[in-house]
UniProtKB/TrEMBL annotation:
Top-level taxon in the UniProt lineage: Bacteria
Protein name in the entry: AraC family transcriptional regulator
Occurrences of domain HTH araC/xylS-type (ranges): 194-295
PROSITE patterns: HTH_ARAC_FAMILY_2 (PS01124)
Lineage: Bacteria, Pseudomonadati, Bacteroidota, Chitinophagia, Chitinophagales
PANTHER family reported for this sequence: ARAC-FAMILY TRANSCRIPTIONAL REGULATOR, TRANSCRIPTIONAL REGULATORY PROTEIN
InterPro entries documented for this protein: Homeodomain-like_sf, HTH_AraC, Tscrpt_reg_AraC-type_HTH
Pfam families recorded: HTH_18
Amino acid sequence: MDIINFNTISDYNNYNNNEVLHPLVSVVDLSKAAPRKQYKMYFNMYCIILKQVKCGDIRYGNNYYDYQDGTLVFFAPGQVAEVTSNEYYQPSGMGLIFHPDLLHHTPLGKHMNDYNFFSYSTNEALHLSEKERKLILDCFAKIDYELQQSIDKHSKTLITSNIELLLNYCTRFYDRQFITRENANKGILEKFEDLLAGYFSSNKPQTIGLPSVAYCAEALHLSANYFGDLIKKETGKSAQEYIQTKLINVAKERIFDIDKSISEVAYELGFKYPQHFTRLFKQKVGISPNEYRTQN
C-alpha cells in the first residue's frame, strides 16, 4: 500500500480539497475531500481529527482506534496511520493541522510535549459528549476565524493561544474519560498487579532485567503514555513509582533468606549492579538492605 506523505499544510489541504489560508496551520473541512478507500498517511505535522461519522477503521501501529461518531484522534510529526476500508467512502468531519514551526517562540511550544495524548494509540482515542463536541468545534471555529483575517503581528499569538486552549480542553476531557472508564481502569490495575507478581516469580528479571513501564504497557496492550497517565490517575503514583514499590516489597521478603547474600537478591530482582539495588532500597525504605535484614 502506498504511503501519502503530508509534509506541509498544502499537502494535506490539497489532498482534501481545502484552500490554503496559512502556510503553517489550517482548519480542514473533510466533507470537501473526494471519496477514497484504504490508504496510509505519514504526518510531518500535528493533526487533530474530529470524526463525525464512521468512515473506515483507523489503524495506528498494529492496532485499531475504537472511534465512533464524535471522536477525536491525534497524530504527531513522524507518525504513520492507516485507514482500512475496501469500499470507497465520503470523508466527513473537521480537522486541525499545524506544523511544528508554528510553535517556535510561543508559550505553547515550550510545553507541547506535555500533551501525552499525541502518543496514545489503539483504543485510546478521545470519545466526546455532545457538549464537549460543540466546545471542540467552537475552538476550531475561533482558529478558522483568525485564519480568515489578514495576517498581522497578533495572528500567531491568537492562533497558538486558541490551539493551546483546545489542547487544554482535550486534557480535561481525557481526565473525564479516565473517570467514566473507572471500572475498565481498575481491571487494568489488577492486571498490572498480576503482571508484576508473575514477573518477579519467574526468571524474567535475570534474563530481561527490571520491568520497565514500556514492557508493562505493551503486555497490557496499551501505549506507554496512556498507561502511565492511567496509573497516575488511579493511584496518584507514576507507573515507574508503582513498579518500584512492588519491587521493594518483593525485596523485603527475599532479604530474610539468610542463605542468600544481598548481591544475590539484587541479581534475582533484575539489577545488573548490587549497589544500584542498595541505593534504591535505602531511598525508599530509609535504611540499607543489610540494616533492614539485621533489624528484622
